[in-house]
Amino acid sequence: xxxxxxxxxxxxxxxxxxxxxxxxxxxxxxxxxxxxxxxxxxxxxxxxxxxxxxxxxxxxxxxxxxxxxxxxxxxxxxxxxxxxxxxxxxxxxxxxxxxxxxxxxxxxxxxxxxxxxxxxxxxxxxxxxxxxxxxxxxxxxxxxxxxxxxxxxxxxxxxxxxxxxxxxxxxxxxxxxxxxxxxxxxxxxxxxxxxxxxxxxxxxxxxxxxxxxxxxxxxxxxxxxxxxxxxxxxxxxxxxxxxxxxxxxxxxxxxxxxxxxxxxxxxxxxxxxxxxxxxxxxxxxxxxxxxxxxxxxxxxxxxxxxxxxxxxxxxxxxxxxxx
Amino acid sequence: xxxxxxxxxxxxxxxxxxxxxxxxxxxxxxxxxxxxxxxxxxxxxxxxxxxxxxxxxxxxxxxxxxxxxxxxxxxxxxxxxxxxxxxxxxxxxxxxxxxxxxxxxxxxxxxxxxxxxxxxxxxxxxxxxxxxxxxxxxxxxxxxxxxxxxxxxxxxxxxxxxxxxxxxxxxxxxxxxxxxxxxxxxxxxxxxxxxxxxxxxxxxxxxxxxxxxxxxxxxxxxxxxxxxxxxxxxxxxxxxxxxxxxxxxxxxxxxxxxxxxxxxxxxxxxxxxxxxxxxxxxxxxxxxxxxxxxxxxxxxxxxxxxxxxxxxxxxxxxxxxxx
Lengths: 323, 323
Description:
Two copies of one chain form a homodimer. Chain A is α/β, with parallel strands linked by helices. In chain A, 52% of the residues lie in helices and 12% in strands. Chain A has helices at 11-22, 34-55, 62-66, 75-79, 93-106, 123-126, 160-172, 189-205, 211-226, 231-236, 242-260, 269-282, 288-307, and strands at residues 3-7, 26-30, 69-72, 84-87, 112-115, 135-140, 149-154, 176-180. The two termini of chain A are 37 Å apart. At the A-B interface, strand 8, helix 8, helix 9, helix 10 and helix 11 of A face strand 8, helix 8, helix 9, helix 10 and helix 11 of B.
């Protein structure tokens, strides 16, 4: 059991508190508005813990888990004995700098310091703190209480030991961290996602298909494989010679598709309005909050489906007898 | 009940026969090597029918379904009374031209004529036949017995009526057809897939991450949403203002990711070899055939998961009470 501090109690910070508390850790919670942490964040955290206790039981009640979360009134109090701090405040480099200066001064020197930033390079606010070798980005997918992927990315100053320790701690908490080896805008997940969306915007904009078609291609086509195996294992299974054989046969097609893609397509407001209109006809904007809860239940259903096969689908080594 | 003819009994042709027979249609099967159709294709079709009878029961036994499939010795015999012909022969434009000339001459004039091609534009071999208005591409995802998405694409000569009738027939058979409005290399699914893979090859080639990381980002990140909702509905649910609000906040990031993507990245054999080595360490090439069967079972598990929520996740109109 480690002592974890979550700084910031928005959607992301609350979900992190859920992750760490469910993993058995003691969680110190801090928000610049302490009454928000107590009166808004804690009730929502309890609700999420209840939902997860049903959908992905750990053997503990939601209340038992919640009892390990404690709200603190200052950053210094919250981080004083911490082993790991996860910051999830506003995406503003000046705010992050100031918060991390305070965290770094008050936390033990060996305490790991992680930022949830998705929009900023960690080096912009983590390099100048006391002991910068312990600080890095741990970029979650929202909400990390439901989606296990985490992208760890060091600054130039981060030590390999700190990243390794974070990887161990997060894996033990049920997350699936990858290490991004150099800073890059958008990290990996958003680059993949928005590269595909960019080509989709091109195909829609040039009249080949609609946004509805794109969504159907993904849910009724691509994702039926990707829910169990990623794009590289998919290719490996698509040729008798494995990936090398696949590239031998279809490498020219792969290169052609990449060269033909127009991911810099300059879509405009009219195209956005038409897509929004279709989406709103399927799901009115007023129903989005409820639909988010539905989406999160579907995420858990997909994870349960994945686990029903012992995770073989997640590009781990398949046991021969499984096949 | 319609009379469907499947020309070609490779992986794709066999899977089409399974789709149409399970939907209650009479299926005429033809292969240039009639003994292959009888002695290789039919036993494999029976095996797939048995697996599907367990995983996605229709109320009929596999044998009852198989009894509706009949092997014919000539194309003329196979298509003489057909309502719909699905061609799945070799991806060779001269072969397709010759096969479609024969089909078009012998089939009734109102019979729909579909090609499974994934690599050729339909106009290259469907425009010059007798009654070209009834001919189009119906590009499946392999295997169509398990993956419902189909991409319909007309040539310049195809009538809207033919495409509409094909859409109805395929939908009634449990498939999910989209209509690609203009010919485009790779149609939609492969363009999306290989645009994302191209950016992944760039990120791996430039040392940001590994192929293992990419596969994990997809299975433990992106696909947890995409198994239920496509990328546009995902964005719609990610902002209180829906898609329009999402683009207002994150449009600049979307454009930046698209502009920064290097989908024309010139990956080489060394990179392919390294990726193959990792994949083969996870799944030896000798185990691929067994792994394909496992993958197809996972596809059915994912579809069962999707259906467990009445298909709300597939960008259909959600019923308010579901939320």
